Amino acid sequence: MLYYLFEYLESEYQFPGASLFQFITFRAAMAIILSLLISTIYGKRIINFLRKKQMGESIRELGLEGQAEKAGTPTMGGVIIILATLVPVLLFAKLDNIYVILLIITTLWMGVIGFTDDFLKIKKKDKEGLAGKFKVIGQVGLGLIVGCTMYFHDDITVRQEKAPSEVVQVAVDKADSDFNPAIKSTKTTLPFFKNNEFDYADLITWISPDLAKYAWLIFIPIVIFIVTAVSNGANLTDGIDGLAAGSSAIIVLTLALFAWVSGNIIFSDYLNVMYIPNSGEMTIFITAFAGALVGFLWYNTYPAQVFMGDTGSLTIGGIIAVIAIAIRKEFLIPIVCGIFFIETLSVMMQVSWFKYTKKKYGEGRRIFLMSPLHHHYQKRGIHESKIVARFWIVGIFLAIIAVITLKVR
Description:
Shape: globular
Oligomer: single chain
Distance between the termini: 41 Å
Structural class: mainly alpha
Strand content: under 5%
Strand order of the largest sheet: 1-2
Largest sheet: 2 strands, antiparallel
Low-confidence stretches: 165-172, 175-180
Number of helices: 15
Number of strands: 2
């Protein structure tokens, strides 16, 4: 909203300083500052409200050290993250940008699913919460919306030609250039490969070039899978104080860099990455989201004063998945979201091996002491704050590897 106000003041009255709002980095900086303030200042009030309404976490007995003390800690803290993200976005972002609209829809959609799950667990005393099939239906529904929008919407394009030299002389940070032509494309980026572009249409056009118009039959199911997998991965990671929020903050700051580069004609040209018109505007959303996560950590680090619940974890995963898809970096997810990936993989390995050995030997055996992986280390007697810190270090290492892929091919 403020973007449009200052745009009007600049055009009509030459208001001093109004032109700053044309710069993405300025608005991104304002967004992260405001989201930090909202999540830290108003976060305490929301926690007190949740405590007053007895929105406390019911803890299942898993034999973990320090588990009993967490009982009654307010949950649904994901509301703090959602509010601290959306308020700066509404103030500083271009609200007619299709990528921003898609991310706002993602936030509200997954937030409602997570909130419903948390509400059923607490108020209805149903430990299972929202039935798993309904969660999956919600995730698939979001994936369908994202996939159809990415494939069919006219404003979602890429520009693959090298920018002419006169275009590269424009201001580094302003809105996207008018350099044309823009094309619809199902191309994405493959990390570590020299010619690092992959077209989903190639999966069927080898049969016949005429099948290119049916590429959506491949693209949309892949988007649905990514959205579902990443949101569940974030949900599994949210098991000890500060792990999901801290890991997610590292991930989204990395994605903010990719979004800004992909949406900037100069740096995308210099780094020889796919230029995606209008995608730079996502930087405002992503920085607001990062600020909200860091502010939430103020209350979520050990010993946690609030848990994000599924309201936060499902929303976080959904947002990260949509950002990665929008900037054509979904194949980087196993790297940049490596913490989510290994947590999910540990559960899959544990369950699969247990079922296999039970069928073969009549007794289920385990690979890990407990899954997800962070509980395995808890069972080994490592304090959860040390586990979280080490997982963050691994997350930073993976983020660096992801950034290196901009040049290493």
